[in-house]
Amino acid sequence: MKKLGFLVALLSLTFSAVYAGDGNKKSDKAAEKGIQFTEASWAAILKKAKKENKIIFFDAYTTWCGPCKLLQKNVFTRADVAKVFNANFINVKFDMESGEGPALAEKYPIEGYPTLFFIDGNGKMVKSLLGYQTPEKLIKAAKSIQKAPRTI
After folding, report:
1. CA atoms within 13 Å, Cβ hemisphere of 129
2. Tally of domains within the chain
3. How far from the centroid of its chain's Cα atoms is residue 33's Cα?
4. Closest CA to 152 of 90, 85, 86, 59
5. How far apart are CA 149 and CA 77, in angstroms?
6. Using alpha carbons only, what angle is made at residue 57 by residues 94 and 119, rounded to the nearest 5 degrees?
7. Distance CA 142, CA 59 (A)
8. Angle between helix 135-147 and 79-88 (nearest 10)
9. Cα gap 55→141, rounded to integer Å
10. What three-state secondary structure class fits 118?
11. Where is the Thioredoxin domain (predicted)?
């Protein structure tokens, strides 16, 4: 019985490390090369988007969401994804259960997590994606938005 308890504890720790990130320097360096998220108030983000004539890429996540963590770890850190998003969008992420998140959840329709929004400088939603997205699908969505005509 002690072996079973030890095995359960070991599996729990392993599972936690996979989803929480291991904090090593290799992971930190990968994150530095990924999508660069702007930290500011929603009002400041909208103002910046309008001024720069850019669309906002908004990652609506929660801390407990497994697919959200996988996006952060496996998609947002990729160089090909970062190249498209850093050059063409103002990238932001909000925990939808703290800070400005709950107010934003009332403004923009959330059916599940993660929800990825593309929003113009006036606060109008251009497109949304629900759930985990592969790097290829996320890049394709971003490029389709870049090609769409818009007035900000």
Report:
1. 21
2. 1
3. 15
4. 90
5. 28
6. 100
7. 13
8. 20
9. 13
10. strand
11. 6-147
Q: Which of 48, 66, 65 is nearest to 57 (CA)?
A: 48
Q: What is the CATH number of the domain that holds 130?
A: 3.40.30.10
**What tens digit of pLDDT does each residue of 55-70 get?**
999 999 999 999 999 9
Query: What are the angstrom distances between the C-alpha of 107 and each of 5, 59, 80, 91?
Result: 46, 14, 31, 18
Q: In this structure, is residue 81 part of a structural domain?
A: yes
pLDDT in tens, 75-96: 999 999 999 999 999 999 999 9
For the record, the structure tokens of 126 come out as 């251009």
When computed from its CA atoms, the radius of gyration of the chain, rounded to whole angstroms, is: 17
What pLDDT does residue 124 have?
96
Asked if the model's pLDDT at residue 31 lies above 80, the reply is no
SS3 (DSSP) at 81? helix
CA–CA gap between residue 60 and residue 114 (Å, rounded) = 6
The parent domain of residue 97 ranges over 33-147
Q: 21 in a domain, yes or no?
A: no
Contact 114, 11 (CB under 8 A): no
How many residues appear in the chain? Answer: 152
